[in-house]
Structure formats: C-alpha cells, structure tokens
Amino acid sequence: MTHILIAGLGLIGGSLALNLTSDTSHTVLGYDHDQATLAYAKDKRIVHDVYESFEAAVRAVDIVILACPVSVTCDLIDQMNDMVLTTDILVTDVSSVKQSVLQRAEQLTNPRIHFVGGHPMAGSHKRGIEAAKEHLFENAIYVLTKTKSATDQDVKRLEQLLATTKAKFIQLNGEEHDEMTSVISHFPHLIASSLVHQAEKWQEKHPTIPTLAAGGFRDITRIASSNPTMWQDILFQNKAVIKRLLEDWILEMKDLHQMLEADEAVAMHDYLDQAKRYRDGLDRKGRGALMSFYDLYVDIFDQPGALKQVVTLLAEATISIKNIEILEIREGITGVLRLSFVSKDDQLNAHRLLTTQGYETMLEE
Ligand SMILES: NC(=O)C1=CN([C@@H]2O[C@H](COP(=O)(O)OP(=O)(O)OC[C@H]3O[C@@H](n4cnc5c(N)ncnc54)[C@H](O)[C@@H]3O)[C@@H](O)[C@H]2O)C=CC1
Ligand SMILES: O=C(O)C(=O)Cc1ccc(O)cc1
C-alpha cells in the first residue's frame, strides 16, 4: 500500500486525488487550510482521509504532492526540511513556476526528502475542489524536474504513480520550464487581461462594445477569466522572465506603431503573414506544451438541436470528441462548431462522416 499526501486540495490537487484513489493500492490523504475543502473532499470520497496538521499528514505517508499556490508550496518545502522524519519521502509539486520552487528544493538538507519538481500542463479557469476532474490531465504534457536530492529511480516512480492521469511526461530544467511557460502561458495571460481592460475603457465611449465582442475577442481573452489570486502569484514568482517578455513586447508594439505611422503596409502584411504561418504550424506539430488537437469546423443551424445531432452522429460511429467550441453563434442563425480530436484518424473519420451526412465542414490541416 502506498500512502500519498496531497497538500492543497483545489482544482489540481483534487483532480490528482481523483486519479490516485482510482488505484486500490493507494491510500490518499489530504491537507488544506480550508475547512470546507477538507469536509468536501472527505464527504465526496475524493481522498480517504484528511488532516488539519501538515506535519502529522507528512508523517503518515511515503509520497507528498504539494498542490498549493506556488508561494505556499515554497513555504511547505521549508517546513518539511525542519521535520524530523523516520522514513524516506518522495516529494513533488504541481506549481506553474519551477525556478522559485526548485531553489527551495535544492536547499533541502533533510536527507529523508527526495524532491522531483512537477507541473501538469492542463487546467482551467475554475478554481477549488468542486472543479476537480479525474480526466483533467489526459494527453496533457506533465513536466518533471529532477533535483540533487532525487534519483532517476525517483522520477520513474513518480511517472508510474501518475500514469493514471494519462499525461505525457517530459523532463526540463527550471530555467527551460519557466522561459517556455512564460512565453506560452504566463505572459499571454497578462496580455489577455490587458485586452479586457482596453475593452472596458472603450466601453465608456461605446456602451455596445460587449454586444460586439465576438469570437476573436472571446478566443483571445478566454484565459483572462481565470483565478486572479493564482495568476498574481505565478506572475510574481516568475517575475524576472515576465519582465523580459514585457520589455520585448513593448518594443514590438512600438515597431507596429511605427509601421502604421510610416504607412508601411507591406511590412504590416509580412508581420501578420509570418504570425499566421507560425500559428497554423503549431497545430500540425502534434502536442504543444499546452495541448493541441486535430480540429474540424462544422457549419450548423438552429442550436441546440443541431449540436446534439452532430454529437450523436459521432458518438454512434465511436469517434470521440476531445473538445467542442461554438464560435460566433446566435440562436437560429448559422454558426460554426469547432470539434477537436486527439488523433488525425478521428479528425478524418469525423470529416468523412459529417460531409456524407450533408454538413459543410472544414479541416484544419
Ligand atoms: N489552475 C490551473 O489551471 C493550474 C494550476 N497549476 C498550479 O497548481 C497549484 C494549485 O492551483 P489550483 O489547484 O488551480 O488552485 P486552487 O485555488 O483551486 O487550489 C489551491 C488549494 O490550496 C489551498 N491552500 C491555499 N493556501 C494554503 C495554505 N497556506 N495552506 C494549505 N492549503 C492552502 C486552497 O485552500 C485550495 O484548496 C498552483 O501552484 C498552480 O500554479 C498547475 C497547472 C494548472
Ligand atoms: O486553460 C488554459 O488555457 C490554461 O492556461 C490552463 C493552465 C493554467 C496554468 C498552468 O500552469 C497550466 C495550464
């Protein structure tokens, strides 16, 4: 029997708990500072038992998963270092930022603790245990980072433990991780929020702005609806990289301003074209750092009956859909469904099936 502690039973900790309890050889314990979260976790059997004391919980297990906000995770590593432990413990985390966590982990002097950094690169805009989902990490990239207190065997053990998540593991060092996640996750978050602020400011002049905010604006600002407390923590924990990206971004915006000022239409076209090429290529390169899928666009009419029809057709043909998004649709008017599939085969089979049924579809190549 492996005894596992999850410290921080929110969206990520709760989702991992749901995975780990599905294996009967695991006893999963939970620790959180929020009483209601502990009560919910126990009541819904998301964990086998809960603890109000972090130290008591650590003493009861062989493996600890730290799933609190990044700054709290750093403090918990320090607390574990001061504990007198009688058995070896494999410790990992789930933090979106790695260097600040690894810095603490590399300072560990407690010989009982073996630390492997972790980051499952999937989530949602929701927070808290009630949003936890067992399948949250399916096909997602799960980054692992070895520290000097851990062996390759520890990394393997963690991969085996987390195999039920169906995530894909890769190893990166902290610097690589923080630079890459800044580019594709943390910094875009800041920009999404700034676009929303811009819309809100312009709404003073044009009150109908929200009515016009259609597909493009909604697509690019979706992540601005995420948990502000968590993102504030991430941005400050990864401050050095974010500041560098922000400086580059400001220079690039100045270049764009200059192109308009000087009527450099060709340069602007090239800028947009180069972005389109790179963006189009991302989906073809298989799974990115955040997941990429094989997409199919389908024209539909008259929601929600039409949506049900498409989903039923695909379900009957056992083609599984990973994600559905409705783009720019209003009741009773033509709309576009974006269906995402995990494999190229599913995408092509869905394309064939729906076109033979008379649907107008477009494959994202
Ligand atoms: N939300 C997302 O999409 C993703 C988040 N992460 C990382 O996962 C970690 C957790 O994020 P979420 O689960 O989304 O947040 P969450 O807000 O859903 O859960 C955090 C949990 O930690 C608990 N907590 C907070 N401070 C605590 C403290 N001092 N002592 C004990 N418990 C405390 C909260 O009560 C809550 O249950 C963060 O480090 C985040 O960077 C990683 C991948 C995706
Ligand atoms: O929903 C999205 O697009 C996300 O960006 C989810 C997410 C949030 C934080 C992470 O560290 C990893 C993934």
UniProtKB/TrEMBL annotation:
<dbReference type="InterPro" id="IPR003099">
    <property type="entry name" value="Prephen_DH"/>
</dbReference>
<protein>
    <recommendedName>
        <fullName>Prephenate dehydrogenase</fullName>
        <ecNumber>1.3.1.12</ecNumber>
    </recommendedName>
</protein>
<keyword id="KW-0057">Aromatic amino acid biosynthesis</keyword>
<keyword id="KW-0560">Oxidoreductase</keyword>
<dbReference type="GO" id="GO:0008977">
    <property type="term" value="F:prephenate dehydrogenase (NAD+) activity"/>
</dbReference>
<dbReference type="InterPro" id="IPR046826">
    <property type="entry name" value="PDH_N"/>
</dbReference>
<comment type="similarity">
    <text>Belongs to the prephenate/arogenate dehydrogenase family.</text>
</comment>
<comment type="pathway">
    <text>Amino-acid biosynthesis; L-tyrosine biosynthesis; (4-hydroxyphenyl)pyruvate from prephenate (NAD(+) route): step 1/1.</text>
</comment>
<dbReference type="InterPro" id="IPR046825">
    <property type="entry name" value="PDH_C"/>
</dbReference>
<dbReference type="GO" id="GO:0070403">
    <property type="term" value="F:NAD+ binding"/>
</dbReference>
<feature type="domain" description="ACT">
    <location>
        <begin position="295"/>
        <end position="365"/>
    </location>
</feature>
<dbReference type="InterPro" id="IPR045865">
    <property type="entry name" value="ACT-like_dom_sf"/>
</dbReference>
<dbReference type="InterPro" id="IPR002912">
    <property type="entry name" value="ACT_dom"/>
</dbReference>
<dbReference type="GO" id="GO:0006571">
    <property type="term" value="P:tyrosine biosynthetic process"/>
</dbReference>
<dbReference type="InterPro" id="IPR050812">
    <property type="entry name" value="Preph/Arog_dehydrog"/>
</dbReference>
<dbReference type="Pfam" id="PF02153">
    <property type="entry name" value="PDH_N"/>
</dbReference>
<dbReference type="GO" id="GO:0004665">
    <property type="term" value="F:prephenate dehydrogenase (NADP+) activity"/>
</dbReference>
<dbReference type="Pfam" id="PF20463">
    <property type="entry name" value="PDH_C"/>
</dbReference>
<keyword id="KW-0827">Tyrosine biosynthesis</keyword>
<feature type="domain" description="Prephenate/arogenate dehydrogenase">
    <location>
        <begin position="2"/>
        <end position="290"/>
    </location>
</feature>
<dbReference type="InterPro" id="IPR036291">
    <property type="entry name" value="NAD(P)-bd_dom_sf"/>
</dbReference>
<keyword id="KW-0520">NAD</keyword>
<dbReference type="InterPro" id="IPR008927">
    <property type="entry name" value="6-PGluconate_DH-like_C_sf"/>
</dbReference>
<keyword id="KW-0028">Amino-acid biosynthesis</keyword>
